[in-house]
Predict the 3D structure of the following.
Amino acid sequence: MGEMSMNKAIHAAVRRDLDRFLDALQRFPAGDRTRAVQLATAWQNFDSQLTRHHEGEHEIAWPALEKLGVNRDLLTQLDAEHDTMAAALAASRTAMGRLRRTASAEDAAAAHAAIQELQRVTVEHLEHEEAEIEPVYLANEGSPELKAMGREFAKVGPAQGGTFFAWALDGATPAESAAITGTVPKPVLAVIAGVFGRSYRKTVAPTWRA
């Protein structure tokens, strides 16, 4: 049994990015349009990754988990938390779009406040989900249901897959990296993350090195 599921490792990537945005927005240099565009580009990736993750849970993960005995009422509750998170994500999306246009101190502060609320509701959801679902993932590692679930999640194009792996591994701990890469053959991962993750490494990763 692994130390953590891939799902929990993805959650760690979400938490990292939320912390990164809050730190960057708190230190945003007013009037710096280059930095505003850089943060907006990183935001577009984060927005896409988080949206795909919670939508994929509803469409793919929940049916698999229900087959493994997870209560439907719990999954309905988690979906309601997804809805709350999606509303906060939409508010943050609007705030980050405004900052990209103005690069003003006021809009940086507004974006910081929006993402702070997004962080609050997201972390609350992630902690609830992990408490209830992580033991199920670990106890059923290698089961037919989870293997089938993994195949469904893997049905993405190489560009999307490469960006996902580059993002999820950016700043991951050794345990998180092992959880993310453990189900993908190393030669396949080398091509997907190495070749198709270049866009992330070129346009997003430098945002957090600035």
